[in-house]
Design goal:
By secondary structure, this protein is an all-alpha fold. It has one domain. Helix 2 runs antiparallel to helix 3 and helix 3 packs antiparallel against helix 4. The longest helix has 24 residues. It starts with a helix and ends in a 6-residue tail after the last helix.
């Protein structure tokens, strides 16, 4: 379970942080092949603010990766926070943007698994 958790937080952390930085660097979305039209009806004119939020989500998951590598006492708290954030990001994204993409499903499942595994490894569930 620890290995699966590590793989999931690494995947989410790296991809979210990189995509967030690309959205910050190119707020028009061209670096990721995004069209600004998908933001119509949301609070955003471009991808700058969503990029900042996604970079933060990714950074929390990267912090969870390093915390797990160091076997810190708070490693499962960091992982749990990362799972909650990526799940919240995907839920908010699907509410705000009507277009559904298969990657949203992958990230939502990853977030839920991170939450469940972290909670289990924290010792909150009986084995």
């Amino acid at each position: 379970m620890r290995t699966l958790l590590f793989i999931l937080i690494s995947f989410v952390g790296l991809t979210a942080a990189i995509c967030g930085m690309l959205m910050i660097s190119y707020p028009d979305g061209r670096a990721l092949g995004l069209v600004p039209d998908i933001l119509e009806g949301t609070f955003f004119n471009n991808f700058l603010i969503p990029g900042i939020i996604l970079a933060i989500v990714g950074s929390i998951n990267v912090a969870a990766v390093f915390s797990n590598m160091q076997r810190s006492n708070n490693r499962y708290n960091w992982s749990l926070a990362g799972g909650v954030l990526i799940s919240g990001w995907i839920i908010a994204e699907t509410i705000l943007i009507p277009a559904i993409h298969w990657l949203q499903f992958i990230y939502l499942v990853s977030g839920i698994l991170i939450i469940l595994i972290s909670y289990q490894l924290k010792g909150k569930w009986a084995v």
